[in-house]
Queue: 2 jobs
Job 1
Amino acid sequence: MTAAAWVCLFSPLAAVVLIILGGTRLPRRVTGYIATASVAVAFVAAIVDFIAILGRSDSDQSQISTAWTWLSAGSFNVGLSVLVDPLSVLMMLIVTGVGMLIVGYSIGYMDGDDEERRYFAYMALFVFSMLLLVQGGNLLMLLVGWGLVGLSSYLLIGYNHERPQAVAAAKKAFIMNAFGDATMALAFFLLIQRTGSLSFQSSFQWAGGETGTWAVNLVALGLLGGAVAKSAQLPLQTWLPDAMEGPTPVSALIHAATMVTAGVYLLVRTAPIFEAAIHVQQLAAGLGAATLLMAGLIALVQTDIKRVIAYSTMSQIGYMFLGAGLGAYANAMFLLMAHAFFKALLFLSAGIIIHALAGEQDMRRMGGLKRYLPKTYWAFVIGALALAGIPPLAGFFAKDSILAAALAAGTYGQILFVVGVLGTFLTGLYAFRMVFLVFGGEPSPFVQEHLHRPDRSEPWIWMAAAVAVLSVLSVVGGWIQIPGAWSLLSDFLAPTVESVVEASGAQEFWASVLAVALGIAGIAVAWAAFSARTLGVPEWRPARTVLEHKFYFDELYDVIFYRSAVVLTATLRDGIERPLVLGSLGEIAAVVRRASSELREVQTGLVRTYALAIAGSVTILAFVFVWVK
Amino acid sequence: MGPNLTWYIAVSAFLFAIGALGVMLRRSPLIVLLSIEIMLNGANLALITFARNHADMSGQIFALTVMAVAASEVVVGLGLIVAVHRRRLDLDVDKLSTLRG
């Protein structure tokens, strides 16, 4: 079982090394095959693990395999180890399965790009990092994967390095994530100080005995900081929309398989710590609810198709945080999985649209594409329906299970339930605004001029195949857990994390009815407002301005961090650097110059004076010695 | 046993003083070099005197070493003087003051 886990982990890394060492000796297309094959091998290994786990008894499903001691300081030891348990295997399946489809799709999408080799090496590195994150057998391995995911996302967001916006977006993502890495590292330092170890088991035991103390609250807060940064939740959410500068498959990978789901995984993985710090866990749920509402509102005014999808991700991750923060871990993981399917589908379909329109991403210039791209239209509609939570698609079962759990989680949960249900209305609205703007109406002049139909060549088949598979998964993915009928996913995860809230049948029913009704209402409003394509952006001046500025978070951070730092450094420069440091330097130099100009008179250049000086000083020394004696 | 220690030391000091004065007062590099030799010999005389006085051979050996050093020093010194002369500069140590601060 663990052997397959090691194969799963290192197969993408092997592809990275191979592509880098191969360099220009490998044809460009071949690097795509190598990367896809390596992720496929990892996927097969994950399936092997999955089957192995199914065949074991509940108590025997968690295994840690340590390759060697990676770091040793006194009594503190950390091994290079992988953990195989239901939770990590589920994540491995999602990461490698969806990752494989996205990397395969890239063969078609990136065909003809100048730097395909670099691209595929980065993609494989990204998958490896995420696998290390979810398979890490202790918190330090998790942090290593965490950091590598940040690095890979930096490299891929800034893939088009000749575009200044792409470089800026990459830096922004990296810096935002570095905040999260830092708070996580601080939490780990505290854990090491308290427990002398970073293993999951010992830290969970410690947290169990420390319920409610400030130390465990601080650790949980640090972990939450990492989670919100990686998952783009309030207040560290601003990097995600900018990250759309990367190529579309990269966005798909970041949003569906790797990266943003890491925060949810962390919340679920370290659930015992969060349960010991219940207020921090509730804070996570609250942040998720606030983010899902905010992102849903901002998505209404975005005109870039990829940005709308990006905000929908932020919103869906908000649901996952809501679920994980209220203790509905299996439900959060369920939405994570379903979201991986339909979000990858949306991005990859959007990639086909962008490809067909020669790189255009502005929805206001699209329209009428239904006629030219009928299959993409259906794939996109399936993705949008799943996103809006319309039965019987994947998003319905997953999202409604979270809402039902919120309804069952006391007063606080019920408040968040209201927010979540409002979110479903917004989701239906922005998802179908996008559908109508892109596909509805008559073909716009821009479309008629720029559209080139996809050829049916070999690269194109890769793209079509990935989208087809994801369409099917987005439809059937939710059927693994149907309330009242069966709960395969919860049962599978039960040995690792047991959800602490359980919704009753009535709560499931009312949550579903409300969510679906509001989702359909959102779609109806979208149809009424946007199907004619006369209106690109909702009109209502004051709200629109606020939303178009994304609630002024960028401006706020600009004022708090950037401008204040500029003011501080300018004050330091004018108050300390110039008068004190530079001034004193001048003074010191002047004193030295004056002293040396007097001292150099001694240097006459006459041998005789030197001889006299020597003789004189020797004489004086002789007298001194004799006298002292 | 001939004149006692004091006389030897006196002659040695006298020679050394003559040499030192010569180095400091004369301008011709040749004479300066000569004066250095006189200083070295004064020192040698003191070394040998004390060696005899203490019945210790190391002083004499040291004096021999000093002579060898003096010989090589003269070679270099005379070489310098010849070089200065060949560049048609005045043979006057006071005029060779390029290193003046």
Note: Chain A has a mean pLDDT of 82.
Job 2
Amino acid sequence: MRPSVVVREALLTAVSRPFFAFLIVLTAMVALALPAAWEVSELQNLAQRVEEAEARGSNVVIVSDQEEGVSAFECEKVGSWVGVVHAGWFKNTGTVQFEKSARNPLQKASASSSYLEIVDPSFSPGTGGLVLGAAAAKELGAPRGATLSTSTVGDVVDTDRRAPGQARWVYDVRSAGLFMSANECWVEAQSGSTQTVARSLRAAFSPSPTIEVRYLYEGVSSSDWTQRPSQYAWIAAVAVTLLPVTLTVYIRRSEIALYVTSGVRRMDAAFIYAFAHGFLVAVGATGAVALTLFAHLMVATRWHETSLLIGITAVISGAAATFSLTAVVATAVAMLPLATSVKDRT
Amino acid sequence: MNYAYPGSPREIIRDFDQTLRPGTTMGLVGPSGSGKSTLLDLIGGLRKPVSGSVAFDNVPASEAVRRAATAWVAQTNPMLHGRTAVENAAIALLAQGADMMTARAAACRSLADLGLEDRMLAPMARLSGGEQQRVSIVRCLLSDRPLVLADEPTGQLDHQNTAAVVDAFKTLARAGKIVIIATHDPSVWERLDEMVDLRESP
């Protein structure tokens, strides 16, 4: 049989039983789209959790040394590293008592403006005067611009999310001196660069044996993504899609036998039915891609490119596996004994 | 030639010996279970004899050779569903490497010769049982295979359609093919050149 005739016969075979064709296309479309939609949804959930974790500081690395302190000057230099958004420090300088803070003295600290930007992204760098934690400002009744003793309140920072223990702190904003020691150096990394930055910080501050590098907030673990169940859903989709394919090819075994007993080589007959049903799976997979795009448009609010890529990958993985197994099924049915297949009454 | 089903001690085909010349029609008669279909399978290479052989021009032929030499007509009318009569008939020529135009043209001529000129483009499911059988016979006619085996081809047909189908088989024989028909219908085997009654097997 000529190759062009084989392909033509396959295409005619694909559409010659409309009910089965519709069943396969519909099953493939829905079964292959569902894992993709699940993957997109999982990625969106992960993106949201990462966003929430980063708001609480999962991308902030803290360098400290209980015995010797860390160099404030070196800390500020980290701010120019690739992958670093801000690097800032603070140093406790004792307590301070104002007339209105009769209850307890407030903690006083020197801090770089970058540190305060990490603690509260809404902090405006460059403002002079004292900076108060929100609880301290409330306790003192001192909003931004108020006067405390001889100083003006330059800003009030919200410490709730990233430094809840510093709500009653009073910061004196300043630059690092060359030999100044800080209690902690805080480094905010770009999303996705946190671990790299943490490794580099260990190397940069390593001469001290008592140096400690930790994350401000332990957020989403990489295993949350690598161990997600949705990544295997396409395998179930392949099994579901193969059901009507196998059923249809088996029901059509007398047609395959007819080709063979008419002189068509078994492998050509198997190819006709593999190509015909693989074509239907491909049509269904195209529909699944469309459904995935629709699902993506409906639910994807973050990480758009990755979300789309992972959804399409799920569809293509399922379609490719189904296509391959369809060829196996068609070949297996073509190898059935002709004596029974050619007399089949279905 | 002898044959017993695997695991069965009883030989359903026993000492069968027959010689046929091209252009001959032969009927295999006998009740259900007498081995008519099994004998066709053996001749057509779908089964392997326990002993003995099928020979073409006195040369024993393997199963593959016999399959390649045989065209089939079955009672169940195996067909390409959803396809037209001409498409079903043309696959015999397409299998031999003919192009689509040539195959369709030849199929149309042969369908017209067997009285199906008005049914060529009808889907197979819309044809009567007799018409479907004649399409199968056209497929055999177009095939270059010298042997035509028909298993109860008129089992589901009325008298008029049966006569038309037997006429078609005679056409195949006139084209030089050997036609062997398993049947229990006297109106069929009475019109054939030879007849073997499997009830009379030793």
Note: The two ends of chain A are 26 Å apart (CA to CA).
